[in-house]
Specification:
Strand content: 15-25%
Bound molecules: S-adenosylmethionine
CATH class of the largest domain: Alpha Beta
Largest sheet: 10 strands, mixed
Helix content: 25-40%
Structural class: alpha/beta
Number of domains: 4
Number of strands: 17
Mean pLDDT: 87
């Protein structure tokens, strides 16, 4: 049974609030609670959020003295069936039915309708605050509004937890995780909508896992679920493991000031650089993936939207007139494997029309929409960052509307570009360097006021393959002199080349323990991991050199698992 029981410290806090309210009639402030327990306000804030999630009290965010204990009636308990496991990731076979129940308070669910619960497996909904191991309470229903998080059955018997959107002729099942793509289907069967998320705080946070030295602490104020992450130029092109712009913004606002020079040493598609320009910070970005450099440059160059729209309309007119015999198809290995002939012809026409634009910034901006079009028009599965070809009947039927995809993308990008143009600060410069962050890249020592970055995962075989993701686009938009070189990018990135042996001089017991564990199962895998950490260590040393003394280095990291 799963009960929202408070931890010892949380019970003490509840007791303190009860006594305080009885004595003074009003509720204590966070500071008063913190003082009483001799801990910091953020610690109390965290406990209060857990107690709210456990439905033991209510509190209005940002309002002083708003903590209220919930009455016993409000806490009346109900038991609902826990039907099994649901995938927040790749769909899995439909739900099993074991004999388990969970207990929650009555007011946590709506009065109408039947409810059931499922345990979540996977990380595709993390931006909605739904994590691996959480339990979601579902209200049974067969319809859902746009944007609701639903239990959906697709392909007859595959169940998945996603946000549902109705689009023109199909349904989009949208993961809430920037590293994953949506799933599109003509038919989706809705089995209910999520009404509540229950996190197993008892085991995950309060006590930590018994076999682990470290305790997991979650500060929910960094949870930006439901917020628009595609403002300005942030949404003009997908990229693996992009920053949540709100995270970059908050770090910039907290650890730097206007006029400062910041650096993102793994800038990827340039999220932190876009935010820097809007917040009036100068910015350097470094990346070793040529497509990332191309995207970051396009995203950070403010372009007058009127000029952009004019060029776009002229481009559409030119496009109509281009004849089949006027185009040059690109030549690279396996082009016929990844693209149908019809798509190649249309893409080649589009590319010719875009290349006719004289203004370089505008040309590159529209090339970004073209790059996205390339991926959607290819024979790859759109739900993956890796290159995986669609198969069988689906491949036979695959007939992408290349110009339609481009128009939709270009028009959305122009809107985002206009927003950025309005807000970008003209005095703030952005310099984007194609280079390896473990080496010297021309940035002066002691010249950076703040580093904000998120490092690669260094494990392209099982997780994020930046180079593989970028390959087809890079081959089409002539990023390399020889397009066949595009397939070598992942080898150049951190962790791209395994070390020869497992001996090293990095002084981390934790790393050594982890390497031992991995090597016992797969020595080559351990060499990949070691190569990543040696590279990362060099990047951090370099970063230390360019950063001014006593300034902040903000590293946003993911929880890495190596298979
Ligand atoms: C997590 S991504 C950064 C994403 C970025 N924050 C964004 O919002 O798009 C990490 C980036 O590190 C880059 N990278 C990997 N090894 C590198 C190296 N040695 N030097 C510079 N960049 C590297 C990858 O190409 C990738 O773009």
């Amino acid at each position: 049974m799963w009960i929202n029981k408070p931890s010892k410290r949380q019970a003490e806090i509840l007791q303190f609030i009860t006594k305080f309210q009885r004595k003074k009639i009003y509720s204590p402030s966070l500071g008063e609670i913190a003082n009483n327990f001799g801990v910091s306000i953020p610690t109390i804030h965290q406990h209060i959020s857990y107690l709210r999630k456990k439905n033991l009290l209510s509190a209005n965010k940002g309002k002083r003295r708003s903590i209220q204990l919930l009455s016993d009636k409000e806490k009346e308990l109900v038991e609902i069936p826990l039907l099994g496991v649901i995938a927040a990731g790749q769909p899995i076979e439909t739900i099993e039915v074991p004999d388990e129940t969970i207990t929650i308070t009555k007011d946590e669910i709506s009065k109408q309708g039947k409810h059931y619960a499922l345990r979540v497996q996977g990380n595709s909904m993390i931006d909605e605050g739904i994590f691996d191991g959480d339990i979601v309470v579902i209200r049974k229903q067969e319809t859902a509004d746009n944007g609701q998080t639903v239990v959906a059955i697709i392909d007859d018997d595959q169940a998945t937890l996603k946000k549902l959107y109705r689009e023109k002729n199909k349904f989009r099942l949208q993961p809430a995780n920037p590293t994953l793509f949506p799933i599109y289907r003509d038919e989706v069967e809705v089995r209910g909508v999520v009404v509540k998320i229950i996190r197993n705080l008892e085991s995950q946070i309060d006590k930590g896992r018994p076999d682990e030295k470290y305790t997991r602490r979650i500060d929910y104020s960094w949870d930006y679920r439901g917020e628009n992450t595609k403002t300005y130029t942030h949404g003009i092109h997908t990229y693996p493991a992009m920053f949540i712009p709100q995270v970059a913004r908050r770090l910039l606002e907290t650890y730097s000031k206007e006029g400062d020079t910041i650096c993102d040493i793994f800038c990827g598609s340039g999220t932190a650089l876009v935010e820097s320009k809007v917040l009036n910070r100068n910015a350097y970005g470094i990346d070793l993936n040529p497509l990332a450099i191309f995207l970051a440059k396009a995203k950070t160059a403010p372009i007058n939207p009127k000029k952009l729209t004019r060029e776009y309309i002229a481009l559409l007119n030119r496009l109509e007139k281009i004849k089949n015999n006027e185009i040059k198809k690109p030549i690279f290995k396996n082009i016929d494997f990844w693209f149908k002939e019809k798509a190649v012809i249309k893409l080649a026409k589009l590319k010719k029309a875009i290349r006719g634009i004289k203004d370089k910034a505008i040309r590159n901006f529209l090339m970004v929409a073209f790059s996205e079009t390339v991926r959607y028009a290819s024979n790859t599965k759109t739900g993956e960052f890796k290159l995986v070809r669609i198969k069988g009947e689906k491949l036979e039927k695959h007939d992408p509307d290349v110009f339609g995809i481009f128009r939709k993308k270009a028009e959305a990008n122009i809107a985002g570009g206009g927003e950025f143009y309005k807000e970008a600060k003209r005095d703030a410069w952005t310099k984007i360097i194609f280079g390896d962050s473990s080496k010297e890249n021309g940035i002066k020592e002691n010249s950076i006021d703040c580093i904000i970055t998120s490092p690669p995962y260094g494990d392209s075989r099982t997780t994020v393959a930046y180079g593989q993701f970028s390959r087809l686009s890079a081959q089409w938009i002539d990023i390399f002199d020889d397009p066949n070189k595009a397939s070598g990018v992942d080898n150049e990135l951190l962790g791209g080349r395994a070390t020869k042996t497992l001996s090293h001089t990095l002084s981390s017991d934790y790393l050594n323990d982890s390497l031992d564990k991995i090597a016992k199962q797969d020595e080559n895998r351990a060499k990949d991991v070691l190569s990543f950490y040696i590279g990362l260590n060099d990047c951090l040393k370099r970063a230390y050199k360019i950063l001014k003394p006593k300034k902040y280095f903000c590293l946003v990291i993911g929880n890495r698992l190596v298979k």
